[in-house]
C-alpha cells in the first residue's frame, strides 16, 4: 500500500469506529459485540499507523518506502506514543 491508500484505510476504519459507537448507543448491537469489533479495529489501526510511520521514515532517510511491511499486531500494540 502506498501512503494515500494507507490514509484512506485509516479514514475508513475511523468511520467504522464511529458507526459502531452509534450502533451501540442506539441499541443495534450489544456492548460485547462493540468491544470485540472495536478491539480488532484498534489493532488494525495500530498496524496501519505503524506502516505509515515506517514508509515516512524510509522516505526521509533515502530508503525505498515500498520495503516497509505490516508488522504483527502483537508487536505494534506494545509501542508507546
Descriptive terms for the model:
single chain; 81 residues; mainly alpha; 70% helix
Descriptive report:
InterPro entries: Uncharacterised_Rv0898c (IPR020311). The mean pLDDT is 91. Helix 1 packs antiparallel against helix 2. The chain is 70% helix and 0% strand. The chain is mainly α.
Count of beta strands: 0
Overall tally of structural domains: 1
Give the SSE order as H and E letters. HHH
Mean pLDDT: 91
- The whole-angstrom Rg is 15 Å
Distance between the termini: 23 Å
Report the major sheet: none
Content of β-strand: under 5%
Pfam families: DUF2630 (PF10944)
Organism: Streptomyces phaeochromogenes
Protein name: DUF2630 family protein
Quick take:
This protein has 81 residues and is mainly alpha-helical. It is 70% helix and 0% strand.
Describe how the helices and strands are arranged:
Layout (H helix, E strand, L loop, with lengths): L2 H23 L5 H30 L12 H4 L5
Helix pairs in contact: 1-2
Amino acid at each position: 500500500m502506498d501512503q494515500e491508500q494507507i490514509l484512506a484505510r485509516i479514514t475508513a476504519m475511523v468511520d467504522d469506529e464511529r458507526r459502531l459507537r452509534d450502533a451501540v448507543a442506539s441499541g443495534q448491537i450489544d456492548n460485547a459485540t462493540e468491544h470485540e469489533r472495536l478491539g480488532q479495529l484498534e489493532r488494525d489501526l495500530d498496524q496501519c499507523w505503524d506502516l505509515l510511520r515506517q514508509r515516512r521514515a524510509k522516505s526521509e532517510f533515502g530508503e525505498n518506502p515500498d520495503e516497509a511491511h505490516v508488522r504483527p499486531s502483537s508487536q505494534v500494540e506494545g509501542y508507546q506514543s
